[in-house]
Fold each of these.
Amino acid sequence: MTTYDEIVEGVLAGAEATPEDALTILRCPDEDVFDAVAAIARLRRAHFGMTVKVNYLVNLKSGLCPEDCGYCSQALGSTSEILKYTWLKEDEALDQARAGVRGGASRLCMVASGRGPTDRDIERVAGMVGAIKEENPDVEVCACLGLLRDGQADRLREAGVDAYNHNINTAESHHESIVTTHTYEDRVRTVAMAQGAGLSACSGLIAGLGESDEQLVEALVALRDMGSDSVPVNFLIPFDGTPKQETWELTPLRCLRILAAARLISPAAELRMAAGREMHLRSLQGMALQVANSLFLGDYLTAEGQSAEDDLTLIADHGFTVLGADDPASVGAAGTAPAIRRRGAGTSVPANA
Ligand code: SF4
């Protein structure tokens, strides 16, 4: 039995993985990575079998953000060439939502750039969500609108929103080096407000921001401790025009180790390989599904991902099935995966979700 098997046996028996266990995975030699993934894949299968949850991003508002998150193409001061627009009209948002559902998405992520929503913005999103739920009552809706104020999470819940996304992005000990216009504590408070209103918490991170291994583990443990049900792991896309434009720290094996460490720390959480997976995992995306159980279909916020058809082929080729598909065999079959391209994506540069 390998060290990796021993660690996983403990977690399968109900123990929490320790930060040291996660560091063992993050620092395992290249020749051991697939052994580590094989061990940790048992956790994935124990909680999610061979299913993959497909999520689809609806980018409601793009760019024009007053915050200074150093990784973000939509931030204040960013000169990235992205399409910028204010709120989509409801029928445009609904068209995008329908395209995602047709492509096999069981969760729609309704995202708007900015520090946080006004009450009017909340009402706008509430109207869209009501219309989506009327057409597709079984589709989960996750809202991602920034920092929340009192009462806003309750209103979203009342409108039918199932989950709220607000990433911590990085470790508390590293946070000030990536953004100065809001604090780590602000972010944690919003996650807690969402949970307090009965929304499922979706909170994750961006890897490759200059954090140490210890800080990566610090962030993963923080996400477990705050009870994040869904953990998106983004891999930094170093945009031209942002302070991180020269930051290239990730390799495919490093990304695989990060996802494996995330699964080890939060074995029962939905683990999503998010923005940057195509660029950084490259040919290991299929291997990554052995530990991650969720992905975004097609494009990211201001980013072009691989085609929806390629995503569905990736899932099927590795023996996985799309969660919630009535006929999994038909998802991704020729002609069923729409050529999804949203307004704002498909421009010259990709973006971190
Ligand atoms: S991550 Fe969000 S809050 Fe930060 S700059 Fe980008 S859109 Fe604004």
Note: Confidence is low (pLDDT under 50) at residues 332-353.
Amino acid sequence: MSILVTGGAGFIGSHFIEYLLAHTDAPIVCLDSFNDYYDPAVKRRNIAEFAASSRVTVVEGDFCNSEAMRALFAQHRFEQVMHLGAYAGVRPSVERPLLYQKNNVEGTLVLLEAARAFPVQRFVLASSSTVYGGGATAPFCEDAPLGVPLSPYGATKRAAELLGLTYHGLHGTPVVCIRPFSVYGPRLRPDLAMTIFAAAISAGRPLPLFGDGTIRRDFTHIRDICDGLFAAMTADKAVGECINLGHSEPIAVRELITRLEQAIGKPAQIDFQSEKPGEMPVTHADLSKAERLLGYRPKVSFDEGVPEFVRWFLRV
Ligand SMILES: NC(=O)c1ccc[n+]([C@@H]2O[C@H](COP(=O)([O-])OP(=O)(O)OC[C@H]3O[C@@H](n4cnc5c(N)ncnc54)[C@H](O)[C@@H]3O)[C@@H](O)[C@H]2O)c1
């Protein structure tokens, strides 16, 4: 019996595999296609520390391939699935919606079908705060009416959630949908604002800021996310539910830039550009359900997390 982590070479997936190595004795399969959404060399570095572990099997493959997934599930008889693999960027989804629908919706369905053929004890599905969309009232409560997603990415994440919940109702697949909010920390994805800003400030280059910097994000540290994901794999009452994992303290993007300037010790040269479509004005997690069902309470403050991220980024 073992644990499957899809997207295991990505930012969150690689941290979660390290978490599993530290907190369980289970064998782990790290499945990733090493696609070129961002430099695959970054993904190879993400897994470098654990790839040689006798407890981790790295499988380079595509979860959209249903025959390959059936064979993988038949071979390993997974006890738990942590489905983190996806195309995860908001803005690129506006340009490439079909790619997002293929990987995020069809790929999730392929995995749910494999889990129907070879039943698992838990199937945790990474959704996103973007499912709240425009018009949802902040702080976002899981069981209040959702808005309409503002990007194809958000729509594919909501579609994946709905398929998971349908499989739970129809086939009894023990699905839990997790909605992470702006995750950050060491090994952060290179396409995300915090990385792009840190790179520009440290190099003394102009920093591209889309809009006026007043949009707010509920930045949540990767260690807190790993605690919440692990609880979602084990907590009894979580099955069939959608659950937020956030920090519940939205920070304006302008404030993020100030914190990065302080941690790096250099001023930012801001290059104001017009707003890009698809972005939500604010994300803010209500955490009462996560606390009730998962015992989740974020511990890592922004004051602690940003300097830690900068130390990793500058490798000091
Ligand atoms: N990072 C965040 O702030 C955030 C917030 C909300 C939700 N999420 C969700 O969490 C999950 C992980 O996000 P991340 O930031 O680690 O992204 P990431 O891009 O670093 O990791 C995703 C991984 O999935 C892999 N992948 C994509 N399609 C695949 C396929 N068809 N077969 C096999 N592997 C495939 C990619 O190669 C990549 O390594 C995603 O589902 C994302 O939507 C992330």
Note: The mean pLDDT is 97.
Amino acid sequence: MEQLAGGLELERYARQLKLLGEDGQKALKEATVMVAGIGGLGGTAALYLAAAGVGRLILAHEGNILAPDLNRQILMDSDHLGQERMSTAIARLQRLNPHVAIEGYNSKIEYNAARPWVRDADIVIDARYDFPERYALNRLCVDTNTPMVEAAMYGFEISLTTVIPGLTPCLECLYPDVQPQWEPFGFPVLGATSGIAGCLAALEAVKWITGVGTTYAGVMHRFSSLDFACYSVHITRNPNCACCGEGGKP
Ligand SMILES: [Zn+2]
């Protein structure tokens, strides 16, 4: 705890030290988490990871703040409508916790550009909304052997699993084809639902980094925020998966 001791930085974590221990807090401080997408889901995850004291965050999200973002994208605000999402989010996170090193890229997830970000991360949170980017991120995590929290929501429904390359199913094991009916723009979302999904994703990352508790590795968790029904099922790899299986591309 050397680098945390002797100041306000350690004091701010006083209420969670009893849960994570000093070793857990130190592990968070030394960790790098990439959050791909800082909208309703990823922005919530980034907020709680910064609050928890993750040492370095790498963020990626393109574009400017639009009015329809504001029902869920809690890192954004009305004063910055029309301005870049990423710079607004970084400023918000740094106000929350100035001890976190934050890198942000005003960018979608593209394999070559995102490779160094994924390679540097101890764990990645996939909070993108469209499947091409999700597949690119999944491929990157498999290629770099980086764990990935696969979190998604649609309407009132949430699904979450944690991918450990080589051990658990990857995204392409679960969804081998891009779903043609997928409509990424204008999908229905209530902020509280995407916030729950973001909190679950942040918790997965904290558990993975600190070793406290059990992650959803190899387990698909589904939750309905409408009636609070939930269930978990064990999931298995597809040996012929085009990404992580024997049929995988070189
Ligand atoms: Zn796979």
Note: Residues 169-170, 172-173, 237-238, 241, 243-245 surround zinc ion (CB under 6 Å).
Amino acid sequence: MSELRFNPNISAFTRQDGSPSIEDLLEAEQLQPAHRLQNNENPLGPSPRVVEAIREAAPTLAVYPSYSDIELRRAIVQVLGRGLEPEHIFTGCSGFEALELITRATLAPGDEVILSSPTFTGAYKKVAEPLGARVIDVPLEPRTFRYRPQAVLDAISERTKLVMLCNPNNPTGTVISAADVEALMSDLPEQALVVADEVYHHFVADANYPDTLGYVLDERNIVIVHSFSKVYGLAGMRLGYGIARPDIANTIAGLQRGFHQNKLALAAGIAACGDQAHVQRVVDFVRAEARWVCGQFDRLDIHYWKPAANFILFETHIPADDLQAQLRGRGLLLRGQSGNGLPYAMRLSLGARAANQAFISALADILGAAPG
Ligand SMILES: Cc1ncc(COP(=O)(O)O)c(C=O)c1O
């Protein structure tokens, strides 16, 4: 009898409940988190119109959703404008799934994916390596976290299929400039596709942020990933999408399961697109909190990287794993960045003022600084 053999490339990935998450640790320690500042979630939540749309859709769940996601894609392009058509869009059950569809559509065993750490490495590996692809790291400049387009171009080989551009970058919160993206795009070989992961793009106020939609409209080799988890406050719904020229978007969409978007997600996404005033409220709120926290970091003399998104990377003299545990003991969940090669850095997801205030007080206390 022959043995059951799995794809050897998935062996590196364990089931999600294998290693303890911050939430698991909390449960084991029987602590109630007062403030969840670890997942870059939206402290204001979704628009009330979205909640209403979900309520309206709920009684119809016995019936399959529409086979096509066209209504959602129409709503998305209405928001994006610029002459984009529904054919430029493919939706996924999360930004993460949009990334996965891109890798499945492009990667064969032995192909290469370039990323620039510290970045959203775990997720990029998870969607690329099971396909037998090799992930190649061309790190950002140390300390400044500036993107290095020439180093990336130098690392491109005939097997390079994808170049991951996380912008704003998670976990650094920094921006890859329009000039650096142009330097990459202008010399990109034809077989390579740039993946601009822009799930935090709404929060950016930097004039040097690249206009990647322009590259899509110019029919270049680029696919942009957006999510409903961040500014739309729908992380629990799992809804995202990609934007690319129609031949790319249609090929990727060909991988979708039948009825791939559930009814609640379709209703929520369409209603979310229809409430751009809520988006503006969230952006204003997050930017104000970012200013407040940065002011507190300045006061406490804590080094941080100027945030372009809804989270801030900061650094202390305490190893991040220790600081994470100490903060957890005070009911504050934050993510240490030792796994991203930054042993003293932590990422704070911006919460509401009470949460941010509680975090700053706890941090000042731990560091022995005067509370604010
Ligand atoms: C850079 C980046 N890309 C993609 C995602 C995936 O977002 P989601 O799967 O919630 O849509 C995240 C989530 O935090 C992220 O930080």
Note: The mean pLDDT is 95.
